[in-house]
Amino acid sequence: MNRKLLALLALLACGCAIARTAENEPLDPALIEKLVPGKTTALETVELMGAPVDVVQLGRRSAYLYRHTREKSTGIVLIVFNMLNQDHREDRLWVFFDEAGTLTHLGSTLEADRTQVATPFKDLYEQEDEAQETGEAPAQDEKAP
Amino acid sequence: MIRLLGPLLLAGCVSGSYTRLSVNEPVDENAVAALPAGADLQVCLGRLGAPIRVWEAEVGRYAMAYGWLRERGWGVRASYSFDNLLPSASFSFDSQLKRMRGAVLWFDGEMKLVEARAGLLSDLLPPRRRPVDVDLLEDSEG
Predict the structure, then answer these.
(1) CA distance B4 to B123
(2) Sign of CA pseudo-dihedral B6, B12, B13, B19
(3) Mean pLDDT of A107-121
């Protein structure tokens, strides 16, 4: 009787959860295209892109990071056993400035909109990763030219 | 046995879990290996995209890291608290960074590639340190 009661309670006391979180605004490719190495200044970059999330000192140079993160999670809560599937992707832009504050280099990766939600049973990227490892179908990344 | 374990299991004091975690898209290690020594920073950024971290490795030497993570695994959790019935969905970026695969690229003061290595970031990343005083640059350059 105890075992049946426990099994019943475990089945009844279950739940599921879906969560979506995002940090900062998505990076706009049109704005990134306005950044011109050798011309754009740090001030103009901040006026265009807003405040960076990180500033790194590189000797007399500096680098600013702009980042938008998106995370989607699904979970099954069975109290005695829980499952979670979480996907985390980012838009990132690094801009590098010389001592005078002029933009010298920039690089961007825009993949936040590829964040996926799936049941905890599903492997989101297994086939994609295997294909890339074998060289059959390389992933198509959006990157700065 | 079940009289002992049953209340613990149902109260969430002991629970099993299966977690899948995916962070960023994989770094193309072939593209990393194909970067020629002396390549300009812009060439590296163009081929690999934006890194997850940039820092001053030492005086006049800079580094940037790319990282991604695919984890799936079973776990058992024991707890005396009733607060967290869900598996934790939060993480520390630093501890996650060390479990990532990826690449680290080192550049000289002219932002030309000196070295590129791919692998586990825990093997590639040095401990964090403060940036050097810029006055030391004049000593090292002079």
Answers:
(1) 43
(2) positive
(3) 90
Which pLDDT belongs to residue A15?
Answer: 81
Cβ <8 Å between B25 and A141: yes
Of all residues in chain B, the percent with pLDDT exceeding 70 is 65
pTM equals 0.77
Q: CA B91, CA B71: separation in Å to the nearest integer?
A: 13
Handedness of CA A30, B54, B96, B85 (dihedral sign): negative
Would you call A6 an interface residue with chain B, using a CB distance cutoff of 8 Å?
Answer: yes
Contact A84 B47 (CB under 8 A): no
Q: How far is CA A29 from CA A42, A71, A91, in A?
A: 18, 20, 10
- Other C-beta atoms closer than 10 Å to the C-beta of B141 total 11
Return the structure tokens found at A70.
């998106």
* Cα distances (Å, whole numbers) of residue B125 to B16, B17, B56, B109, B117: 32, 30, 12, 19, 11
Put simply, whether A76 touches B (Cβ < 8 Å) is no
Whether A89 and chain B come into contact, CB under 8 Å, resolves to yes
pLDDT digits (tens, 9 = 90+) for B17-32: 888 899 999 999 999 9
Please indicate if any CB of chain A lies within 8 Å of the CB of B18: yes
Nearest CB to A60; choose among B45, B50, B137: B137
Chain B residues touching A141 at Cβ < 8 A: 25, 49
